[in-house]
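hey so u asked for the seq, here:
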Amino acid sequence: MTTLGPVQLVTFGFGPDATFEGRVLEELATLERSGQIRVLDVLFLRKATDGDVETLDYRSEGMGETLAALLGLGLGSGPAEAAGAQESAVAGADGSGATQFGFTPDDLKTLSEELLPGTAAGFLLLEHLWAKKLLEAVRETGGRPLAEGFLTAEALAPVEAELRAATGSTDGPADSL
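ran it, structure tokens below
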């Protein structure tokens, strides 16, 4: 049986003057070709000025269905099944009974509902192929992930000098996000 590597949901917000020229999808394709990630699903939503939420063209048949189902948008073929699978993954599917960190279907729905008119959000569900063996090693030695997350440039600002010194980089966190 093939196991999945760590799966992450990343949500990006875009202001009213954002341009969707395909650059984000190009970068995802580059990362996928390099074997670092596998894109499981992508969904772009935009809230029109009249308040209606619309999906944006993501140029791939079937893409967006899983995330749309989780958001309750009815675009997917099996919203109840997808939502049930997500809930079990989030609520301790490893049998430990412990609550896992992550987005719930309700969190996703809230994010989509809170979009301001004229803004957009991109939802990306991806598998971290680069971390698959690391996760297997942690699990095989009796461990399990407790938390994860990207830190924003603002969160890293207090330790920016230390990070630059540790990496020997002149580019800091503020330059990377």
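The mean pLDDT is 76. The first strand starts at residue 7 and ends at 14.
lmk if thats what u needed
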